[in-house]
Amino acid sequence: MVNESQSPREEEEKRLLVVLEQVSRRMRKETAVLGERRGDVVGIRQEFWEDVRMNFSDSSEVAETWTSIVQQAEVLAERERSHRVASEAVERLTKQFDSPYFARIDFAEDGREAETIYIGRASLLGEDGETFYVYDWRAPVSSLFYDHEPGPAAYRVPNGEIDGEMTLKRQFVIRGGQMKHMFDTSETVGDEILQAVLSEGSDTSMKSIVATIQKEQNFIIRDERHKLLVVQGAAGSGKTSAALQRIAYLLYRHRETLTANQIILFSPNPVFKGYISHVLPDLGEANMRQMTFRELIEARLGRRFEVEDLFAQTETLAAIDGTAEGDARERSVKYKGSDHFFMTVANYLKRLEQGGVSFRTLRYRDMTIASAEEIAERFYAIEASDGFATRAANVKRWLLERIKAWIESQMNEKWLEEAAELVDQEDIQRAYVDVRRSGGFHDEVFDDEDQMSQRLKRKVAEDAIAPIAKAVRSYRFIDAVATYTALFESRPLFASCSPDGKLPQGWEWMSLRAEETLGRKRIDHEDATPLMYLSEALEGFRRVEGDIQHVFVDEAQDYSPFQAAFLRRRYPRARMTVLGDFNQAIYVQSQESGGFGGWTRLMAPEVTAALRLTTSYRSTEQIVEFTKGILAPEDAVHISPFHRIGELPMLIPCEDAGRLSERMTADVTELLGRGYGTIGVITKTASESGDAAALLKERLSGDVPLTLVTGGSAELPKGVSVLPAYLAKGIEFDAVLVWDASSERYGKEKDRKLLYTVCTRALHILHVYYTGEASPWLPRSGG
Ligand SMILES: Nc1ncnc2c1ncn2[C@@H]1O[C@H](COP(=O)(O)OP(=O)(O)OP(=O)(O)O)[C@@H](O)[C@H]1O
């Protein structure tokens, strides 16, 4: 009921109290439950060993001891689970007490009375189980807030659309349970709040944007009609933010069927991984799986080969740039990242169904367990229509059987007897426990010397062969490298697989290079994905994550079309959300495709949506205008700043590196004094970062926190971070100080996007320092 005598503010404050009261009631209940569960858990932990019968006197007693430990552990795990649920509820309620909602809309569905809806980070249901005090921001009706101004409005529900009229749209800033601001708005999402949010200092971790999601971002967050979403967005336009909100949205909408570990996000680097890892927990959701493409390569190939990573490749290419070698390598990098090569490998795989896969002989010392020829024969004896998966799995089983038989065949061999005699007491016991665990000796009594020695010998033989068995289990009997190299050993073979029957320019060079590197177990970065594709396909994309339902790729412009196509094959059932900015395509492998070609063609047009985000929210208007000037004019047309005023970027000439570091030291001190909490000193390469950090450290006073961020760093520290451009991808700083943007360092066309990427990391302050001549890409309009 509207009370005429009260102002809207008074009314809202009263209502806030009612909600807070509800929250605190729930909180009382949940904390009581939590206390109880905690007591349970602590009790069980303390009494764990008291309730376990410990007896190691003979094998049947050991079995009972084992069972009782397992039972006790199960009870504990169950209590711990319910403790976790209660503690998550308390955590959520604590946040709700701080700020239960951020918006209100009044909406009258056609032909009905207006309803008042409050929107917050999580929903709040009254004790009656019917009154919705607050709706979750992800509820269908909440979409109205993000998509519409007051007036005719509609929102989607699973089976259609609901039309009506929005009569009021109000925003709140509530902190610590206090109403700080409140205002009605006619904008889609009020500029004032967004202004306030964007003017804040940056943090070392990313924040969620629930209260200020913009309409075009909301589309990305909620779209479920398409299986492939490809988003081209200007630097700072909220691609990563939208991706994370989308994950939170999907987890909420499909909470019965989707879990966080069925979602995987490919991140550009470890620093970025740490940077975004707080957003989902903050929204009350578990983190999705996250990995870098480099980690994927390392996991698949890194143990057996020395694999060059993308950063090393980039630095090598820079070092040999302009030489004949450099040109040839660059051509090879581009080709091996192309769709043409993907098709070639795909066609090659088809041929391999008939024959041609290389295998490795299984050997223990000089004893052959199964020869490569035998394995090949077995592999190809299975119907081609069954595909590689069935064949590989079948051969795997057969080889494991072979290994078992081989163990039996060795039982009376001298080497084994000798080895068994050397086993010490501790190992005997361990062997005994191991066998128990693996289900050995069920009801038997362990009383016979002879039996014991047989078992020991078997155990020794199993241990000896274990690395081979493990290799078999992970399909290493398939020699993927030899199979891959074969493609570069025969012109007719390559030509017959190539989609247009042609060999790429520079094939001879690639062929020599393959011999030189792959033959020595060194893998160039450009060969890593093709090799991974080939080997995973030959294994039938086995353990590969058929269970993954959503794949997110951030900084997608850095992936080659080959890598895009590979990921699609690797996660065959997944929907994909791909976000990137072609203006930040800094790697040779993706330059050909303009950064995006590979992605948009992955699925049929009717299930693909290609979207654009054009407003840059990160940087001030001055910085956005400046950074647009770095790009070619045609690349800068779709970038517009959000209206937030700041200082003009500065171009600062310096005589040499010493002077540069002196000037930078003074500026760092001054900026920290002005309250800027995160300052990024960004260099072109990692070695330059090392030099810059050393120079600055020497000059800065001891109490200034300065960190050299390296490839292994996972957390971004407060204070001054010195890091190379490729590690700064995707993250942001209050102030960015660009280390030596001279024409010597950033003079080539390909440096243009790199410089753009570096400068667009700045929220409020951008200083560009250079020695000698300034990079030709820098606009002259700096202060
Ligand atoms: N709707 C929004 N409300 C508040 N802040 C926003 C919004 N959208 C983006 N931002 C802020 O803008 C900054 C840039 O966002 P984000 O990192 O998601 O952009 P991006 O497009 O991934 O950038 P880049 O490609 O440069 O890495 C972040 O600080 C983010 O919080």
From TrEMBL:
PANTHER family, alphabetized: DNA HELICASE IV, UVRD / RECB / PCRA DNA HELICASE FAMILY MEMBER
Gene Ontology CC terms, in alphabetical order: cytosol
Pfam families documented for this protein: UvrD-helicase (PF00580), UvrD_C_2 (PF13538)
Domain UvrD-like helicase ATP-binding: 212-620
Official protein name in the record: AAA family ATPase
Protein residues bound to ATP: G233, A234, A235, G236, S237, G238, K239, T240
Top-level taxon in the UniProt lineage: Bacteria
Species of origin: Cohnella terricola
Gene3D superfamilies: P-loop containing nucleotide triphosphate hydrolases
Keywords on record: ATP-binding, Helicase, Hydrolase, Nucleotide-binding
A single GO molecular function term of this UniProt record: 3'-5' DNA helicase activity
Signal peptide segment: none
Any one GO biological process: recombinational repair
